[in-house]
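Collaborator request, handled under Task 6.
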Amino acid sequence: MSISTPPAEAAACCAPLTAQPLDADAAEAVVPLLKALADPVRLRIVSLVAAHEGGEACVCDLQEAFELSQPTISHHLKVLHTAGVLDREKRGTWAYYRVRAETLGSVAALLAAPAGVGAPERTPGCD
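Structure tokens returned to the collaborator:
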């Protein structure tokens, strides 16, 4: 796997972490995707876009959820798009974003527990 592989594709190509260790190149390729999701604002953006009516949103739909400027929100959207978490479609002057379910599925598969291991107890505070 080359380091120039898009982060979303890199995660899709990796076996679960519990199945076999990642080699250095695979780890380097997946890091941008995990970093994109590790930021609290970006994680909230993904959640807001996914939960928005029709499963898509533009900057104007997201702005009131944050005490951030439109350019800052746009920057976070660009990071998520570049990492392959969001798809973007330009309509007139607005760009609309939609979560790439296959990318989130790849992250979930990468972090999957080995067969036979039960799901962890619900973390307190996540209700």
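The cover message to the collaborator said: "The mean pLDDT is 83. The two ends are 39 Å apart (CA to CA). Please let us know whether this matches your experimental observations."
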